[in-house]
Write the structure tokens for this entry.
Amino acid sequence: MKYLAIFLPLILQLAVHADEGKSRVLPFKVSEVGADKSELMKIFTAVQIKDREDLFGIPQTYRIIQVIGKKEFLVQVLPAGKRILWLKTLNEISAADGEVIRDIYAVVSERTRSYTNIQGAKATVRIAEEIIPPPFMKQEAFVSLLKSGKTWTLPAFKSVSCQRCFGDGKLSVLQGSADCPDCDRKGSTSFDLLVTW
């Protein structure tokens, strides 16, 4: 029994380090889903969002620096606010300087516009034009693409209780009661989900 107390921390450490270098990916086979489709529907929704983001990026939020017209604005891209663009929207927007415009899909072109900044200097910025992305993928297209071999990886989709600290966030007394290095004291580990047929 005294040898178990000596070697258990070493055995656990070896088991954890043997797993390092492997990617943390959980497979999800759509073809093997049973009668309960609730998990599949969550995954399908996540795939729809990821597919749109892969094609069109994520909708942006902008702070208006100057209203040029009802469809044209000099804007800062948020959250950082360092990039300035000349935004052309599809619809008229009733907004004032300093207001925030949310959830705009826009494509930044190579074309530019010039303006005079607050210091009186001339500045040139790129033009971003709002687009309407196509509707989300339908279930039939999702299944058809999967059957043809398409896969999706959903980053950090699942959270699983940490195997090293058993969800406590701290190592056992035998291991020195230190913070768990595998889960960074969270008690759980995130896994990507690989969606296949």
Q: What stands out?
A: Residues 38-56 form the longest helix (19 residues). The radius of gyration is 25 Å.
